[in-house]
Every structure is written in structure tokens, then in C-alpha cells.
Design brief:
heterodimer, A: 189 residues, alpha/beta, TIM Barrel, 8-stranded mixed sheet, 8 strands, globular, B: 562 residues, alpha+beta, Sulfite Reductase Hemoprotein, domain 2, Sulfite Reductase Hemoprotein, domain 1, 4 domains, 5-stranded antiparallel sheet, 18% strand
Chain lengths: 189, 562
């Protein structure tokens, strides 16, 4: 069975390959890891490449990008602002959650949608689990490459946990208090 | 007080279903403990030494008699008949079964309560002044803004996996009773020269391993910008706070690393395009929330001198310590002491909870407050009723006249319950309380903050105690490090450690010796903290360590006093 992802609120086939630099040995410096990513070979087909790979090879990847074959993923410590000029050339942007407890990816998604004007597919990758999907959806993700050892059908349920939310985010720019006439206290309360 | 509307109810209901499902999946092993841990923590459920502990949010410490009765019900039905009020104005129950937690949440929802974000790396329950709305020195009632923040931060999608926990406190009075300087964000409601309401914004205070007082990053933030500006602070922290070391992950470390000016600059830059967005508060919304916190229907009463009416010395002691001034003539705020000698600080039995709820209904418009010193307040008592109230509560162990005195000890649950603790804290508090269980002596010593934490996480606020006691582990045994000169409030200060640590048995004598130095050195009207800050640790240290402290006929301690 081909690998599946959630797109919007549907389970669909994943027709993208996620390219990751080989697991760096313990003690590898950040610079060495970045160099490794810069020199990665990008396989054929539709590929989501690390940010460092894109920045190092974007001229070589230009024609493939023009064919809508290239996406870029961002690690928690990276800044999506690095993609500002390149976004129109990308078919997909992904944000990595190496551990679901590292919440930087939520702010990256918010920035991509709210400040960088990204309207294409925004995919959560990595440790992506049912119980985080609702928040991911709120900050602007619309695709979820959920962890393969868990049922994707179950994960889908995570998108519909709440039918109301208090605060504004990407999915709803207007907070609850501006959307509804909320009551005032009964007299004498 | 605030009352849930249909939207609050809906969100809480859906939350309970989500959580019920998460618990079921954990029990079915569909969730690993590592995956379940952050989920249960964001619902206030900790694994303790013997059982689960459930921490329930008391928003800014304010609760109704109905809610207090529900705590009594939970204590009886799901726990061992008592609960523990915390330094963050919440309540926790220490003997909880995981399988029963969804039912507890349903019970809580029926009285408009929950346990959301009482733990975990998210924005926690906002705390405030226990005398908010009634304090004689209040400028602006901070509770409406605390409620605005509560709603905004509840399930904020972007800030649910922060580098570390995040605590906000808000004060609106001349005197800071909310300990804002030791919070991640400390807000003071202020008025500018034009009479507009806004906030002085302090960031980066905290206790724990690295005690730091907060720094002001903005002198005046117009109130309508409260949420967008907080969002800016949170985003800077979420993206740049350290995640490589949990002990360096609080916002205070980021602020120190960047410097106050650079941190403030980043927040202002982040805020620039948030300012004025839809999340900006409308006047209508602020007035709607403020309407829930209007003064009660007070009677027009003359001022009444309860002390003159009743020549009863114990009553006078109680008036002096446990009764606080009120805005409204003829009324007073009363602190019910949960610090009776022999009882763990902050603990209350189900019977006491029900009794306090009854008192609230009979004496104080059906409302109560939890203080961060772990006592309970009846905020609106008629002065002419004080004597009757005192007579009643004496027989229920709630009239100990020790508020703000040496035996009004702030104390975490410590090693008896908490799996993080290095050492027990409650027995230390009890031993000290027993040693100094003499009301005239306590009143002579006067204003005093003795704070005890069982570990460096500082839930007992030891850094800001006039005397702070910290439990430490050395080679598997429990020791206690003592600091003096700490303070909370407007003149917050971090205490200084006096020297090598002590055994549990030595602690009452250590406190006694510190007090002896104070009594010897004090000038008239000088409080312990003033003397300690004026003289520094030297004379205290010298006297405490001058001769061995013997316990049960033998030397106990790590030091040979060589």
C-alpha cells in the first residue's frame, strides 16, 4: 500500500518523497550537518528537500522547481524567512517536528501563512500525531504526514475535536468575542 | 465573578471528550506514556510518588461557594477527604486514579471549572491579588484582564509546546500581592497621565534554579493591546527560548542572554504588525468582562470598630493579623488561616471546605479566594459581623491569628508527595510551627515570610522568603539550605544563603538562632527582613554556626563545625 497522508480532511496517497540527510553521528557539528544537507543528491520525482539543500542547489533545481517538482522542509531551528523570495517557485512547504514537544513549528507555520504569504500546501512532517493535529490545523497546516506506526484513520479524528475556539489564528482571524454577541452578566450577578 | 456562557461550556465539554478519549487510548496502550505525558500534564495530571495528583484551576484564585463544595465532593469521592491549596491559587488532590479523572472533570464542568493548562509547557492559570476588587489600595481591578487572558490562552494553538512552563501574574493595587516580579510575565494595571488604563509589562522573573526578578520591558501598554502584545512576547519566546536544557528554558534565561533592551526590541518588532489586528480588544468586550466583576450590593454602613466593641485579646490578635481593609466603609476582608500548627500548610479537609463555603454564603456574598500564601479569603464581611464570624471559625481551626507571621509558612507538598522533591518540606514546616507555637512571641516577631521548598523548582517560593528553606539531596539524605533577606511584593528580593546546610532535626533551632539575632539587632519598628537586608548575612551566619546544634544528644549535620 502506498504511503498515505492527510490532506485537508481527507486521506490521500502521498506522491512526494521526503529527503533527509543521513542521520548525523553523535557529536557532529551543526555546520557539518548543514554541509551534508547542502551536498545531498536530490532523487528524481517530486521531492521535499531540506532548506539547506534548496539554498545550496536552487539554481540546479530551477527547472525541476518550474515543473512543480520541488518542495522544501524547514527544521525547528531554521527561519522560514530564508524562503521569502523563493516561495513562488515551490510546490510545497513542510515543517518538521522532530519531537512533538518542540513547538517551534507552530510559529513557523503561523509566520509562513501570516507574514510570508504562503498559500500553497503546508505540510507537517516528523512526529506528527493525532493529538496535535487540531492545533496544527489552526496555525495554518493543511497536510499532515502522520507517523507511520499509527492509524491514519484515527489521526483524522484529531482535526475535529473542537467546534469553537477563543483566540484568533490562521484558520480563524477573528477571535470569539468579535464573532459572537456574548452575554453580559444577569443583573445582580 | 465571571460566569460561563454557551461557548465556554461548549469548549469545556469538547475538551472533556477529547481527554476521556486520550485516557482510554492510554489505558488501551494505544498511546505510550511518553506521548500521554504532555497530554495529561496539560490537564493538570501529574504522576506522584504514590498516585496521580490532579491540579484544578481556580482562575486568579476566585471561586464561588458552589465550586468550593465541589472540591469537598471531589475530596470525598475521589481522594482521601482533603485537598491542598497551592501557591498558584489552585487546588490539588494527591490520591487520584487515572481512570476516574474524566469523571472528575465532568463534575468540575458542572460548576464551571476545569484543570486545563494547570501544568505542562504552556501558559498556566493566571494569578492575581487575593484582595482584587476589594483592596483599599487598589487602583484598577485586575480580574477582568486576568479573565481576558484566561480565555485567550486556553488552547492557544501556537503556544502549547513552549520551551517550558509559562506563568503570568497581574496586580492592580499599590502594594503588589501577586508576586509579579517572580513570574514569566508580571503585569501591573496602571493609568497614564491622560487617565487611560494600561499595563506596565514586566518579563523574565522566576524562581527555580536561577532566581531572577523580572525586568520592565514596557512602561505603558494601552489595555486594548494586551493580547497582541502578549502574543508577541510568546512568539519570541517560543521561537528563541532554549530547548536544549530544561533548566535554562524559561523566558528569564532568554531575556538575560539577549539583554533587556534587545529582548524588548524583538518583542516590539514582533508586535509591529500584530498591533491593531482583530485580536485587539474592543471597548465593548472589555466592558462586557468588567461587568462580571462589579462590586457586590453592599449596604450603606458606617465604619464599625470591632476591636472597641469586644475587649477580647485573642480576638484582637486575630483582627490585627487576619482582617484586612476594604474599599467599602463598614466592610472588611477576612483571611481564614490554613496554617494551624499540626496541619500541613494549605491543606483543608472536605468538612472544612464545606464549612468555608457555608461561611461564604452567610458572610461574604457566596465568594471565596485562594491566596498564594495558601490561605482562604472571605473578601466582603461586614465589620459588625467580625466577632460572630471569629467565634464560629475558632471551633473549626480556621482562626489561627498568624497571617503574615512566622507560622504562616508557604510550603510545597515536598518529598511526602512530590516525585521531584529532594527532601520533605511539610514535616519541617510542622516542626518549626510547633517550636514557635506561641502567639505573643509570633506577634512580637511581627511580619514574617518563612517559605519552604522541597527542591530547586521552588514551588514553596523559598527564594523570596525572609527566611527561605530549600531541601537538598546529598548522598541520598535530606539536608536543608537556609537563605535570609528574600522578599516578595513591591520590594522583591532574592534571599542569600547563609552557609552549609542543616539536618531536619536542626531546623527549628536554626530558625530560633536567626530570630535571636534579629531580636538583638533590630531597631524599633524594623521587621526581620529589614534587619536582614540592613546587616547582610554576616551576623546571622556567625551566630547560627557559632556553636554546634545538638539533636538528641549527638551532633547531626554534615559539618563538624571545625
Amino acid at each position: 500500500m502506498p504511503k498515505q497522508i492527510i490532506k485537508g480532511r481527507e486521506i490521500v496517497a502521498n506522491d512526494w518523497t521526503l529527503l533527509r540527510a543521513p542521520e548525523a553521528a553523535e557529536g557532529t557539528s551543526a555546520e557539518d550537518a548543514a554541509t551534508a544537507a547542502e551536498t545531498l543528491t536530490v532523487p528524481a520525482g517530486r521531492v521535499i528537500v531540506p532548506l539547506a539543500t534548496w539554498l545550496a542547489q536552487r539554481d540546479a533545481l530551477a527547472s525541476r522547481a518550474a515543473n512543480r517538482e520541488i518542495g522544501v522542509w524547514i527544521a525547528p531551528h531554521e527561519d522560514p524567512v530564508a524562503l521569502r523570495e523563493d516561495l513562488p517557485r515551490l510546490a510545497l512547504v513542510a515543517v518538521d517536528f522532530p519531537k512533538f514537544t518542540d513547538g517551534r513549528g507552530y510559529s513557523h507555520a503561523w509566520n509562513l501563512r501570516s507574514r510570508l504569504g504562503w498559500t500553497g500546501e503546508l505540510r507537517a512532517i516528523g512526529d506528527v500525531l493525532r493529538d496535535q493535529l487540531f492545533s496544527m490545523q489552526r496555525v495554518g497546516f493543511d497536510a499532515y504526514d502522520t507517523r507511520p506506526d499509527r492509524s491514519i484513520e484515527d489521526a483524522l479524528k484529531g482535526l475535529t475535536v473542537f467546534s469553537e475556539t477563543y483566540q484568533a489564528s490562521v484558520d480563524q482571524r477573528v477571535p470569539l468575542f468579535r464573532r459572537h454577541a456574548r452575554p453580559t452578566p444577569a443583573a445582580g450577578a | 465573578m465571571y460566569q460561563y456562557d454557551q461557548y465556554d461550556h461548549l469548549i469545556i465539554r469538547e475538551r472533556i471528550e477529547q481527554y476521556r478519549d486520550q485516557v482510554q487510548r492510554r489505558l488501551n496502550d494505544e498511546l505510550t506514556e511518553a506521548e500521554f505525558l504532555p497530554l495529561r500534564l496539560q490537564n493538570g495530571l501529574y504522576m506522584q510518588r504514590h498516585a496521580y495528583m490532579l491540579r484544578i484551576a481556580v482562575p486568579y484564585g476566585l471561586l464561588s461557594s458552589k465550586q468550593m463544595r465541589m472540591f469537598a465532593h471531589i475530596a470525598r469521592k475521589y481522594d482521601r477527604g482533603y485537598g491542598h491549596f497551592t501557591t498558584r491559587q489552585n487546588i490539588q488532590f494527591n490520591w487520584i486514579k487515572l481512570e476516574e479523572t474524566p469523571e472528575i472533570l465532568s463534575d468540575l464542568a458542572s460548576v464551571e471549572m476545569h484543570a486545563i493548562q494547570t501544568s505542562g509547557n504552556c501558559i498556566r492559570n493566571v494569578t492575581s491579588d487575593e484582595f482584587a476588587g476589594v483592596a483599599a489600595d487598589e487602583i484598577i481591578d485586575p480580574r477582568p484582564y486576568a479573565e481576558v487572558l484566561r480565555q485567550w490562552s486556553t488552547f492557544h494553538p501556537e503556544f502549547i509546546a513552549l520551551p517550558r512552563k509559562f506563568k503570568v501574574a497581574i496586580n492592580g493595587a499599590v502594594e503588589d500581592r501577586a508576586a509579579i516580579a517572580v513570574h514569566d510575565i508580571g503585569l501591573t494595571v496602571v493609568k497614564n497621565e491622560a487617565g487611560e488604563i494600561g499595563f506596565k509589562v514586566m518579563v523574565g522573573g522566576g524562581m527555580g534554579r536561577t532566581p531572577i526578578l523580572g525586568s520592565v520591558i514596557r512602561e505603558f501598554l494601552p489595555r486594548e493591546h494586551l493580547l497582541t502584545y502578549t502574543e508577541a512576547i510568546m512568539r519570541v519566546y517560543n521561537l528563541h527560548g532554549r530547548r536544549d536544557n530544561k533548566y535554562k528554558a524559561r523566558i528569564k534565561i532568554l531575556l538575560k542572554a539577549l539583554g533587556v533592551e534587545e529582548f524588548a526590541r524583538q518583542v516590539e518588532a514582533e508586535w509591529e504588525d500584530l498591533k491593531g489586528t482583530e485580536q485587539t480588544l474592543t471597548l465593548e468586550e472589555m466592558e462586557r468582562i468588567i461587568a462580571y466583576f462589579q462590586p457586590h450590593g453592599y449596604k450603606a454602613l458606617p465604619s464599625y470598630d470591632a476591636a472597641a466593641a469586644h475587649a477580647d485579646k485573642p480576638f484582637h490578635n486575630w483582627l490585627k493579623r487576619n482582617v484586612k481593609p476594604h474599599k467599602q466603609p463598614g466592610y472588611a476582608a477576612v483571611v481564614l488561616s490554613l496554617k494551624k500548627t499540626g496541619v500541613p500548610p494549605g491543606d483543608a479537609t472536605a468538612e472544612q471546605m464545606e464549612y468555608m463555603a457555608d461561611l461564604a454564603d452567610r458572610y461574604s456574598f457566596g465568594e471565596l479566594r485562594v491566596t498564594h500564601e495558601q490561605n482562604i479569603v472571605l473578601a466582603d464581611v461586614e465589620q459588625s459581623q467580625l466577632y460572630a464570624l471569629w467565634l464560629e471559625i475558632k471551633s473549626h481551626g480556621l482562626a489561627t491569628p498568624n497571617i503574615g507571621l512566622l507560622t504562616d509558612i508557604i510550603c510545597c507538598p515536598g518529598g511526602d508527595f512530590c516525585s521531584l522533591a529532594n527532601a520533605k518540606s511539610i514535616p519541617i514546616a510542622q516542626a518549626i510551627a510547633e517550636r514557635f507555637d506561641h502567639i505573643d512571641f509570633l506577634h512580637d516577631i511581627g511580619d514574617f515570610e518563612l517559605n519552604i521548598s522541597g527542591c530547586i523548582n521552588a514551588c514553596g517560593h523559598h527564594h523570596v522568603g525572609n527566611i527561605g528553606v530549600l531541601g537538598v539531596d546529598k548522598d541520598g539524605s535530606e539536608w536543608y539550605q537556609v537563605s535570609i533577606g528574600g522578599a516578595q511584593g513591591n520590594n522583591s528580593a532574592i534571599g542569600k544563603i547563609i552557609g552549609p546546610s542543616f539536618s531536619a532535626q536542626q531546623m527549628p533551632e536554626v530558625i530560633d538562632r536567626l530570630l535571636q539575632v534579629y531580636v538583638r539587632e533590630r531597631t524599633p519598628e524594623e521587621r526581620f527582613v529589614d534587619t536582614a537586608q540592613r546587616l547582610g548575612i554576616a551576623p546571622f551566619k556567625e551566630f547560627v554556626y557559632a556553636t554546634p546544634i545538638e539533636t538528641a544528644g549527638r551532633l547531626v549535620g554534615e559539618d563538624e563545625y571545625a
